[in-house]
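Schema walk-through. Below, the input block comes first and the output block second. Nothing else is stored per chain. Lengths vary across the set, and this one has 317 residues.
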Amino acid sequence: MKRRDLLKAGAVAALSPGLWRPAIAAPAGMIKFVPQTSLTSLDPVWTTAAVTRGFAYLVYETLFAYDEHLEPRPLMVEAMATEDGGRRVTLRLRADMPFHDGTPVLARDCAASLRRWMVRDPVGQTISDRLEALETPDDRTLVFRLRKPFPLLPRALAKTQPSPVIMPERLAKTDPYKQVTEVVGSGAFRFLPDEFVSGAAAGFAKFDRYVARDDPTSFAAGAHRVLVDRVEWHVLPDPATVANALLAGEVDWVEMPLPDQLPQLRRSRALSVGPIDLNGILLALRPNHLHPPTNNPLFRRAMLAAVDQREVMAAVM
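--- output ---
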């Protein structure tokens, strides 16, 4: 396989198996990936860090996921029914979804995971405020009984940072303000705790019992088809070391090289350089509206007039 093709495969695989569609000749293989920063937190409910989001896409799954048009599509869910004017939403889980510890994914695992997430996430808190009950009448059925309809429920259950990932009930009962002490998901890759060194490395192995959906892959939605046996994350803090490792073929994909290094990387015929996030970044400044001086609308208007948005974006990007 050419390194250019391998880089394209790694660029997608490290973020999410659902994005991964490389043209690999053999099913066995490995991707060596350099994340944008050190992976320090392994709990995607506890933190909003982007590096933890990428980690979570490998080992966990959510009930819904976003497709390439940023529309939510069922992932762990097989069917959805809405009744009583939107106040009763029933989700039917896919069959035969095991966790990495061998236990089956059950509705009560989903309910416990969502309750923990609702404490930490603003959208989750909105759902919680409208929630009369979250019921699990059987092992594959999850019922939201709402006081007031919430049409955005699939979007909320597909979001990231914090992410409503599904974990076993015993772990989902962890205090939302404390990190889980064990990583057990149901995603396409298993986390390898014996290989994790915070600030240095992390390892992931293909989960052999994972069964992908039948529908086409689309961004994080659809079929998560795994075509390599292993993914390794290597944390290399020095930008020059990162670029040299990529040029030498010691790693397969660098998530976020310095912009100053892009011309050098583009000159290599062995490398493929391009954007992964085509949606861009939205930056926002929200002054405090309760306390002086920014509680004064005139002061806030003066701030707006003083900020050159083009200069800010040029400095950030």
